[in-house]
Amino acid sequence: MSSAVEKIGIYPGSFDPITNGHIDIIHRALEVFDKIYIAVFYNPLKKSLFTPEERVSLIQKTFQGNDRISVEQFGGLVVDYAIKRNTYTMIRGLRAISDFDYEIQLAHTNRQLNVKMDTVFFMTDSKYSYISSSLVKQIALFNGDTKAFVPSHVLHALKEKHSHG
Ligand code: ADP
Fold it and tell me: I need a labelling partner for 101 at 20 to 30 A (CA). Which of 4, 95, 149, 160 fits?
């Protein structure tokens, strides 16, 4: 049996900004996938703190030098991104059972849009299970310490945002 076929996955999300929770999921996924496309989705219905370019750059900095990770932004549906990359396996993270309701809806919807779509879920380490980008943004807005939740370059970017805001 040939093992030459690369296992490639897509990790789509807002990543506004990337947190230690996302990073934990990516490290777990790298144990299973040879290559991961991290796709930063621009959702006009969701107000974001960082521009898509800034979000891409923060993720790139996190995985600098890792040639198994590619980061790019995409303004459309995950199923269209999947066609663009010819990769139909989506990676998503689960924090708690409460994530599951939305994730199962998303997984079924994507499959309805394209029958080839599949979703693989990874469970975060329990120490990251309460972290979300929105909480991190709230803490940073009120000058709280986000050190435990994000890498240092993201912490600096959050401080920079609020010092100009
Ligand atoms: P979206 O807007 O698509 O939900 P997010 O950036 O908020 O984008 O999340 C992307 C994925 O990462 C989702 O599957 C989400 O459940 C997961 N995720 C977010 N935070 C964490 C965390 N702390 N631990 C594990 N998974 C997480």
Answer: 149
